[in-house]
């Protein structure tokens, strides 16, 4: 059986990014996290953590069990669908790759993300 997942990122909602960053930097050993700012949400990539700060309504739409960084998006999505899961959104371009939002048969929602091959 082939491994489709390269890594998993925990999605963590924080009330204040500046206050939360020191803990997650210490846990991950990352000195300079990548910070992305959007109109209603700020996201910091800190090792295996995706910290999210922002408007409650926006965060509600971004809630997932985890982000699965996959090496074959179609196969990963197919695995969910083949196990009685469903596609909720996508595939869609998203920050250097393509993502599809899926729900497993137990109701857990995941973002499957594959980097663009040029990266």
Overall number of structural domains = 2
The strand count comes to 8
Q: Count of DSSP helices?
A: 3
Low-pLDDT runs of 5+ residues are none
User: Judging from the principal axes of the Cα atoms, what is the shape?
Assistant: globular
Describe this structure in words.
The protein has 3 helices and 8 strands, in the order βαβββαβαβββ. The protein is an alpha+beta fold. The chain has 2 domains: 63 residues, 2,3-Dihydroxybiphenyl 1,2-Dioxygenase, domain 1; 55 residues, 2,3-Dihydroxybiphenyl 1,2-Dioxygenase, domain 1. An 8-stranded mixed β-sheet has the order 2-3-4-1-5-8-7-6. It is globular.
Task: Please render the helix and strand layout as text.
Blueprint: E1 5-13, H1 17-28, E2 34-37, E3 41-46, E4 49-54, H2 56-62, E5 66-70, H3 73-82, E6 86-93, E7 97-103, E8 109-115
Parallel strand pairs: 1-4, 5-8
Antiparallel strand pairs: 1-5, 2-3, 3-4, 6-7, 7-8
Features:
single chain; 119 residues; alpha+beta; 2,3-Dihydroxybiphenyl 1,2-Dioxygenase, domain 1; 2 domains; eight-stranded mixed β-sheet; 24% helix
Could you give a short description of this structure?
The protein is an alpha+beta fold. Helix content is 24%, strand content 44%.
């Amino acid at each position: 059986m082939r491994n489709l997942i390269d890594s998993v990122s925990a999605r963590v909602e924080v009330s204040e990014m500046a206050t939360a960053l020191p803990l997650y930097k210490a846990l991950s050993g990352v000195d300079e996290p990548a910070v992305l700012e959007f109109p209603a949400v700020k996201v910091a990539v800190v090792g295996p953590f995706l910290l999210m700060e922002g408007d409650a309504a926006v965060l509600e739409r971004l809630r997932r069990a985890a982000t699965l960084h996959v090496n074959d998006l179609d196969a990963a999505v197919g695995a969910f669908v083949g196990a009685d899961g469903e596609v909720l959104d996508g595939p869609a371009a998203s920050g250097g790759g393509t993502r599809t939002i899926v729900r497993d048969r137990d109701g857990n929602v995941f973002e499957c993300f594959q980097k663009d091959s040029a990266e």
